[in-house]
Protein 1
Amino acid sequence: MTTQTSNNQALSHLDWLESEAIYILREVAGQCSNPVLLFSGGKDSLCILRLAEKAFRPGRFPFPLMHIDTGHNYQEVIDFRDQRAAELGERLIVRSVEDSMKRGTVVLKSADESRNKHQSVTLLEAIEEFGFDCCIGGARRDEEKARAKERIMSFRDEFGQWDPKNQRPELWNLYNARSHKGENIRAFPISNWTEMDVWQYIEREKLTLPSIYFAHQRDVVMRGGSIVPVNVPLVSGELANPVKAGEEIINMQVRFRTVGDISCTAPVPSDADSIEKIVLETATSTITERGATRLDDQTSDASMEQRKKEGYF
Amino acid sequence: MTTQNDTLHNDSLLRFMTCGSVDDGKSTLIGRLLFDSKTILADTLTQMSRTSEKRGLSAVDLSLLTDGLQAEREQGITIDVAYRYFSTGTRKYIIADAPGHEQYTRNMVTAASTANLAIILIDARRGVLTQTRRHSYLAHLVGIQHIVVAVNKMDLVNYDQASYDKICADYLAFAKEIGLAQARDIRFIPMSALAGDMLVDRLGNMNWYQGETLLEILEKAPAAHTETKEAFRFPVQFVCRPHASADADLHDYRGFMGRIESGEIAIGDAVTVLPNGYQSKVKAIHLGETELKTAKTEQSITLLLEDEIDTSRGDMIVKSSEVQEPVKQIDAYVCWLSETPLSLARTYVIRHTTRESKAKVAAIHYKVDVNTLEQQASSDLKMNDIARISFKLAQPLMVDSYSVNRATGAFIVIDESTNNTVGAGMIT
């Protein structure tokens, strides 16, 4: 094979991924009439905010930010979400699963059922309310098997459903984000990133993160082989994940690898209290991000695929 | 403005694809690469071994790693392109894993469209088959520069060098016949994906082979755009005009945002904006808050020009010394992707870079049989067919030949009634 010519050096992998993500964000802006960026305060969506700055500044973002709040989120993350939106001077829309419960469109099977999957309902209601034709999200193909075949621009029908057998072929970087009224595109600018890429990018761009991503002391119990945070205070004043009879509370040093609904996000034991240490820990990790931390994916081999078909992000 | 401070190791990225059917051990090959590069983590492995046991297998089936969807698992086949990732510390890899069966020509074309290297798997017991010819033709058509012919399952032919040599000779003869050998870099490697021989490690079974292991080949393969000098092509994606901003300095700001599809640009370069042909010079190049003096292929940047020029999404900025003539008719190889056949009567939308035009078929010149590579006269085009077609365009497009520039030589065909992507085109 021929050797590389020095004046034509390839981009580093992080520069390449950044450039691709910026390109995807600009395609959404160029092709869609009313897009929205889903922003949770989590690390993946914080990367996307940084990418959006690089894509659109000195202009404003050509889309608002939106969070679907389950009401069971860590207070630190919610505070961080609000602070970050204010710093950027961009509009933040919050729609809550609890409002859907009040409307009767979300019915929990039991009070302690995970609200994570019910986000789909609230998301679809918000899409209809605002007439969004595209939702930008932080999903990555390396997260889960069902996502390995996900498109960068993923088509959802009027019911928000993802049909794996009826996705548009995606060739070169010619993304097709067209939709008819009522249909929706989900755009994933960091599809090709791995967890490691995300942490390296956070480190390089010196992004600040909610405190729960770093090692801290927390009351947990061991439940079904997972570390479960217990007695977590909610905005409502209630406690999420109350301790069950017979469980022993352990005060453990942990950090979160992903953040989401309290009922389904588990921390991992860690003493990584800086981004540098997290990058190191990620490089030597022996367990996948979702395997370690998502209690809702362990039900079956196909649980993510099932939820996606039902409109989950 | 800050300068870019890349504290990380400057490693590049390689996108490659694998071509072969389930029987060739393609999934095992990918599973093995991920496994040996320590990308498969403990919990995934546990889940795989549980599933392997459930199916009554004695060892962990590495191919389970790559068959993703429930529908596919039920049928035991892969029906869609899946993307996999691994990293070696010096390079990040994106694998496009395409199903190899004939009826999935469109998936192979899809996977090939973003790849710079293709691994073509051959079963050592079977040698060069019809599907090998099909995969090679498609890889060639879609412009993959580097072909690695992996003769797999060497363990099943007792690691016999003569069998390997014969397959290599057969392949080379065929590759010359279709012009592949002359135009592309072709490598051969014997391996056993199942045993993990010659992928990452040499197990000593094939000491007669002194060439590189698969991973060594991948580590050294040139990244896209690094091998030839290409013309500067900058399709405008989005125009930034923050005139309503409180910052008075921004009132006249007009930034042309996009990704450099090929070539390089520097401050002061004379540029032409197509299709209108306005001329100006580059005043500034921005990447986020960073001001650059030059920018190169695949960077997403913002260009500011010396003159106030009316430019919008779909225009293309090129160097004034490298202007291409906008055209209203194109001749291309088209792979049909949709279950609804091409209609000669209908008007389609062609998307080329960030630009769209209505288009009608002017002529179907011939269809290519992907198995025999014969040209056949045809008046229709069905899913998975490949044909040479001329289109008439309502709007001019700024194109290059696909063999010269994959970004400005490619287009997709969109059916406006469904908004589906129904065709993929490569301009001759």
Note: Chain A touches chain B through 71 residues (CB under 8 Å).
Protein 2
Amino acid sequence: MSWWGQPTIDDEESLRYPPAHVQSRRPSGIRLSQNKPALEVTDLKTVFDTQDGVVHAVNGVSFTLNEGEFLGVVGESGSGKSVTMMSLLKLIPMPPGRIDSGTVFFGGQDLLTLELDELRKVRGGQIGFIFQDPMTSLNPVLTVGRQITESLELHTDQTRREADAAAEDLLKLVGIPDAGQRLKSYPHELSGGMRQRVMIAIALACSPKVIIADEPTTALDVTIQAQIIEIVKELRERTGTAVIWITHDLGVVAGLADRVLVMYGGQIVEEARVRDLYARPAHPYTQGLLKSLPRLDQKGAELQSIEGQPLSLYAPPTSCSFAPRCKFAFDRCSEEAPVLEEIAPDHKVACWWNTETEEPRHAS
Amino acid sequence: MLPDSAATTTAATAKGEVQPGQVLLSVQGLKKHFPIMKGVFRRQVGSVRAVDGVSFDIYRGETLGLVGESGSGKSTVGRVMLQLTPATEGTVTFDGHELTSLPASEVRELRPRMQMVFQDPHASLNPRMTVASIIGEPLKEHLSLSRSDRDLRIEELLSVVGLDPTHANRYPHEFSGGQRQRIGVARAIALNPDFIVCDEPIAALDVSIQAQVVNLLLKLQKDLDLTYLFISHDLSMVRHIADRVAVMYLGNIVELASVDDLFESPKHPYTQALRSAVPVPDPVVEASRVRVILEGDMPSPANPPSGCPFNTRCPIAEPRCSEEEPEWREITGGHWVACHFAE
């Protein structure tokens, strides 16, 4: 066993990633068997006090992340997907941000009630982060080696020398050639893909139970995105870390996630296993998103756009926030906000309209 | 100027096979090198070969998709074609006029016929100008309309792109990203152009808004007989919108074919890798896909490799590839590729 609790890899070849230029992909089985929650979030509400009023960014979000699970979080800009995940570790700027209510249970304690120094032990230790833009989230005046060992020294009792060796192993693990040399590089000397690999190495450094990745491949080119995705998939199988992957790209989560949350207007509007979500989307927003996407593997029909614009979040929702853009909206939608309810095993939706039977979900 | 020379096809592109019709725009051996200056005396120490010899034709009424990763030179091609920046070498012929050798005043006269839609709808609209003055500016510059005629035209343009004509006196910040991109489109079509370069027009927009703008572009193309060069890194969207597609890598076009040929039977190893790297929004398909993963990054265009530009990352590269530049050849009707091994 190595320092990060995983089988040590002696074979140079198995570290080289990818091993060959063609990678056949194993079918992504749904691994929900253990169903042991790693993270339980209940009724999270985050608001921002701004000059123009209070922005209700997260409006009562509840979800569970199981151990070893890959959870995709999909939404457009302003849907609250990033603020939700940042709120879990109080990583939002406070003020102007405020967490109004909610509990976040992780390892038997509520993260939102922890003191800052307690919380710091969790951040980067038991919960790792990968941010979208590695240029702004890496420190430009420290070598990448130093940035990895910093996290190791903070969260483990390794000596500097042990941490240095560990950092080199980590860089090898995320597929950086000449890892020993690269430890001495500064972030600006690396390409975007390499910087994102360094971010992943930092997130993995303390073998966290959960990694939160916020649009980690959005700034990268597709061929580099494919490299990063393969690394994340491989590392996850090796380490069994649970991952929350925030993205706006329904294509990326299709091949990665076990389960997907769809967010709109600061709420979860649909939650389902990945295959159910794409095969039988139940929320009109999810359906609209999937129909508005062109596909590379087929010459599609006309794209169906979702008309209108996302709502402003200056008022707490008293009705369905998607109703103004929804073609199924009826009177109840503007009177009462729908709640997330289970419509099939592991499939929840927050909508008053049943698009399958084409009638209201509940007789009112 | 020989107006009938517009109908001549050039050696680089097949005539009639894919998109029968008249060549509107022809690019021959186009190069754009940016000098790298260093030292106190700003001596040139090298050059960034952003575009390194590309040739293609665009037919009237078609959409040519230009895809590639960041740094491949695709935006530079679009800018040089419209003479927004001068070419280092090569020619651009627009409807019989060789733009690269015309004086600026004559290019300006052709300007109304070729326009551009920019990527970032935040940066490409002047925040201090109202929508009416943004859209009215090309009208003022190139036409001599009376004030009331101009206002009528502005109203008409706004409703054509799906905006409320009564919002003409608002400022760009009062609009959302998608609406701002519609303003950019209205400005581009204000002078009834023949040809529009769309430089990543949807890259900055949310998924649900992208489809709105793309549908608008397609509708305008049909209604106004427009010809597009659609520059994008989003292969799925290019598949949807384009008639023919050119793939760029490190300043070179490596493959050019009709959209179905290119995506269903790509011949160049780079196109194959690019296609397999794009995720498909379908978990069932994703689970069974075989993926070609490229190693490493694109080399710097300031120091491109010898021979084939792709040889450093190519999975099937042989010694020959780093010595000999592959010939740009047509392998089937209208399917052009630059690779020694493509067949």
Note: The CA atoms of residues 35 and 221 of chain B lie 37 Å apart.
